[in-house]
Amino acid sequence: MKFSLVLYLLLFVKIVAQAQNSPELKIKGDFQEELLPLVILHLKINHNLVFEYEKTLVEDIRITASFGKSSLDYAMRKILENTPIDFELKSSRTIILFPRAEKPIIARSNVTPTRENITVAGTVKDQNTGETLPFANVLLNSTANGVITNVDGYFTLFKVPSDTSLLEISYIGYQTKEFRLTPDMDVTQIEVLLNDFGVQLEEVLVRASEEKQMLSASTGVSRIGLSPAALAQLPSYGEKDIFRSLQLLPGISGSNESSSGLYVRGGTPDQNLVLFDGFTVYHVDHLFGFFSAFNSNAIKDVQLYKGGFDAKYGGRLSSVVELTGKDGNTEEFNMGLGISLLSMNGFVEAPFAKGKGSFMVTGRRSFQSNFYTNIFDAYTASSEAASSEVPQPIGRRGRVASQEVQPNTYFYDLNSKATYRPNSKDVFSLSFYNGQDNLDNSRNVDESAFRNRGGITLDFTFDQENIDLTDWGNWGTSAKWSRRWSNRFYSNANLSLSNYYSERDQSDVTTITRTDSVIVRSNGTFEQNDLKDVSLRLDNEFKISQNNQMDFGLHAIYNDIDYSFTQNDTSTIIDRNNEGLTTTLYLQDRHTFGENIILKGGLRTSHYSITNKLYLEPRASLTYLLSDKLKLKAAWGKYYQFANRIVREDIQQGSRDFWLLSDDVQIPISSSFHNIVGISYETSNWLFDVEAYYKKLDGLSEYSTRFVPTGIGRDQAITYQEFFHTGSGIAKGIEFLAQRKVGKFTGWAGYTLGEVKYDFEAFGAEPFFANQDVTHELKLVGNYKLGPLTLGATFVYATGKPYTAPTGYYEIELLDGTTNDFFEVSDKNTVRYDDYHRLDLSGTYNFNLGNSKASAGLSLTNIYNRKNTWYNEYEVIEGELLETNVSLLGFTPSLFFSWTLR
Amino acid sequence: MKFLRNITILVISVYTFIACEKQSIENIENKTAVVEGYLVAGQPIGSIKITQSFSYSQLDTNTIVLDGLDVTLLESTNQYPLISQGNGLYENSEVLIQQDKNYRLEFVWEGKSVSAETYIPLKKEAGLSLDEVELPKVEFGTFGGFGAGTTDPVEITWDNSEGEYYYIVIKNIETNPEYVNENVAAAIAANEGETRFSLITEPKISDSYSINTRRELTQYGTHQVIVFRVNPEYATLYESAGNSTLSLEQPPTNVENGLGIFTGVSSDTLYLEVNKI
């Protein structure tokens, strides 16, 4: 008994002591029919390990195993692979061996509990870096009593039967750990350290958070967590990309290659709230949207709410992505570098104040490489090929001239974060983010054309210089203080600044030279948008009892948005400035009934200074466990959005949008109503999930500007007017997900049947398909592990998106003698692009370089070189129809290499 | 994996259905009347052209003109029928367009009443800073002539206190114009043969135009300098015409139930001599 106590004491000390651990132990071995006691002896001598076991257990067992430098855990698994013996690491150097069928000694409690019905609280951390793990599952073993850790990694678990109970702690991308409480522990301050899978990652990287036993976790409907660390195994353009990976989930459009933004359940990216360490990020695209603006090395956790989200979140119609930045290593200095054919990145992290504090700095910048040029050469070639496939003739003369567009761009981003934990109750952190893109899409067109009009041949040359420069970026910073007042009460205060800016210079100079005349026309627009966001967020969690938790808080968001639009360098046509303050109070109560019904009800109340009105958003969600595998779920709620991203009527993508605040006069306050029902069936290996949604959208805006002559006769004038077309919409759909969670082969198949229709009076009496409407979308994602090599494949198929096309044209002879062709335009979005599909493959090889870790990978995107349409450009100049087919990237191989010190 | 197979079958079958239903640009038929009418102050109603817009599906490569319609021009209570001349053209040579008046065009086509209304702007007197310009001849194979002759620009000015739209046309009216620079003449002759010089500016809210004598005047002889005053509806169309925008918007028009332009113009003509030294 005494011995056990000492053992447990030691164990506890060891667990805490691991915080000051030396670098992880690496073992290599090559045993051929070696007796196990000898293997043990070898390990004891060479690696200073301690083994605890019963002698009879290891007798007569021979080991054949061979492995390179590996973690102790991996080495032990290899050694004991074909034996009836299992092991558990009691500490970093102590191993307990026991028969495979039995629970290990520490899992079997032979200690008499001293306290009963206790409350356990603590923190879940990464064993190697000391990084706290948010949204990890903490479960009382063999029961449905569980909680998830908060953003600081804290948890409080009520009604734990005794101080010798066994907890099961799991976190995506980490090995699940069983943790035995002991009577001598301070159960209100336990620290659980989890080992990441590292090279031996076996769990899938995405899990729907509805774990079968996880009552609290499963309260979230339409919620998905993602492990940024594991994304390297998915095919990419050389950079693991969080938003791109999210686009592979059902319900999120995966065919928007030109946008990293999330089109969630028929919503648009601006209807998706992106929170990074508490500040709102307004624009998430890098490089035409081929990359998202977040460096996955800087991010610890990603939570996505596809709809029906909690009262804590608001200000957006559709969905929420909450990103938590890494705090930095609290154990030791670490650094890493990565390079792909398109960009390079690096990070540095280190502890300070004796591990009470830590910081992390991460940076990334793209560069112009041969690879880059190759991509865009291929790009241009594909455009030409595409245009020759266009059924001829388009246009009356059957002449289509193609232009070449070779965009030129670079981006960078920088993340830094410092965290300080002076005691077990307080956490202070400062986070900073900056990312910017410069895009040069300018082009030159030279055309000599011979036109035949009335038998007279005219010879003319045509030269067009087109300037198209776009800069955009974000910066944001937040200061956070969170405090665990008690095990029941936790508060988080976050003050943040966020700025989104975009500038666009689009102008062109056209020179038409005939033998006898020169006509020069210049035209251009200059747009500038600057959005500032100052926010204060106070969030509180109050755990009233095991079955009841209350969340409440206050949010105040001050927005200052400037937008200016200048035409032809002459006059400022639009110069808007909006300021608005949104003050929000929210309250949410989560109640569990009879261990199989979880009901969440909440109310969010916002005061918006521009309209001086109150906006009420009731929310509710319900989870009903039919059995431990089968679960029904439903959610319902009202959502308001005050800051709107205005999308121009243009078919062209890119940065042709800007943010404005609603005034409820010209720009309505948009709102949505979510109705979600679903069912999920989960076994230890598989997850099957179906969710159906119906969203009603109101107060949608579309914007256009044009010169309009007003008045008649003498008083006629020409004015540049803004039109805010407003309307409503309905988005509905059903999503299917089948996921294989464990094993050598993991992955998922997702299918979404969806429809988004908008009803805008200005665009006709009938509702029309919204730009982002996709009827069918199928996604297949698979990973196959072959030792240190992981093979990945993704396939995306989606119905083509609708667009507005010219249906014809007409000629007008102008007073200067030139004849111009004008488009006649189809009804809104009546034509669809060809269907989108793409197959990507990748291979990632993980290995050790001395004591450091490295991985190298090859990605082959769009392997069968499908020419998916990005957009079509139509242009009429001097009677010639110029059609530019802009395809998305064709077959693109890319390489990456990354290295980390530890 | 049965699940996957079922999904795939579902996707393929629904896709086939959608693919058949999909609307293509080629199938959309347009039938819209297009008006091209300029009413010039002080001139008879000439050449108002009425056509039909093209569909991409249209195989016929000729413009479909709309002849034989009952087209009426209205000014206050006066009604003037326009006579179909064939080729989509309508005229009435007996009626002179008067400035500072509103005119309305009306006809019915395909059961739709198509109409447009415009105002004839007042003529503005313009002035030239010089009536005569002297330029040295540049012989073939030389660069010469710098410094000699008129170097100052020629200013064309008019009053535009109302902020209206103007554009300038400069035209050589000689039958056999002579080039200032023989190098240019030779190059042009090699291609196409000599033609008359003309320069056209774009409509702008302006009250002057400055002619760069060395760069803009390439031929000797009498030049017409015409200052056109146009309506905003024309400037709007012009704006859209020269625009290489990627947006696909219905172009501006002041024709109801139709497309195109119906607008009034007034002009003042001046003369400029370009002499050899």
How many discrete structural domains of chain A?
2
CATH architectural designation of the largest domain in chain A: Beta Barrel
CA-to-CA gap between the ends of chain B? 92 Å
Q: What summary fits the major beta sheet of chain A?
A: 22 strands, antiparallel, barrel
Largest sheet of chain B: 15 strands, mixed
Brief write-up:
Chain A has 6 helices and 52 strands. With 902 residues, chain A is mainly beta.
Describe the structure.
The complex is a heterodimer of chains A (902) and B (277). By secondary structure, chain A is mainly beta. Chain A has 2 domains: 108 residues, Phage tail protein beta-alpha-beta fold, CATH 3.55.50; 561 residues, TonB-dependent receptor, beta-barrel domain (Maltoporin, Chain A, Beta Barrel), CATH 2.40.170.20. The longest helix of chain A has 20 residues. Chain B has 277 residues and is of the alpha+beta class. In chain B, the strands form 2 sheets. Chain B has a 15-stranded mixed β-sheet that branches. In chain B, β8 and β9 form a beta hairpin. At the A-B interface, β27, β29, β38, β39 and β40 of A face α1, β1, β2, β3 and β13 of B. β45 of chain A pairs antiparallel with β3 of chain B.
